[in-house]
Fold this sequence. Notes:
Elements: E1 2-6, H1 10-20, E2 26-31, H2 34-44, E3 48-52, E4 68-72, H3 78-86, H4 103-113, H5 118-125, H6 129-143, H7 148-157
Parallel strand pairs: 1-2, 1-3, 3-4
Helix pairs in contact: 4-5, 4-6, 4-7, 5-6
Amino acid sequence: MKILVADKRPVVRAGLRAFLRSTEFEIAAEVETVAEINSAVRRFSPRRILLDATKTAFDEAKIPERCALVFFHTTWSKGKLLQEIRTPPQRKRVKKKNRLLTPRELDVLRCITQGLSNKEIAKTLEIGFDTVKEHVGNLLRKTSLADRTQLALWAVRRKVLENS
């Protein structure tokens, strides 16, 4: 299966290249910027686009449906990374600004609507506290909201978490 790797850091791309060489996956192309993704997708027709979850936001209209976005964290184990590549999540459109929320952002958002603190979210989702803070920041940025309370109300009123 062809994969497009998108990360501005050469060391991360090199690590992914070395690791994926020993798997069933083929790196069709590597790109450094969001602007390069569209041309690489047209040229190489990858089935997965591997992206650092903490670095990038994408407009769904620019990514073909046949390409599954796989948001990864550099802290993941090799097993976790392979699992995520093999079973990519469904993309969910968020009405405001047509920004995509990653599956992990949806998990964090669900916890926020339950009133959990960042520390409680980290424990519940078994991720780092700093990772939770990054996801919350991404959610606030993508929705153009000011705080967690507004975020929770927004999610409930717009039924963002239904069917996800």
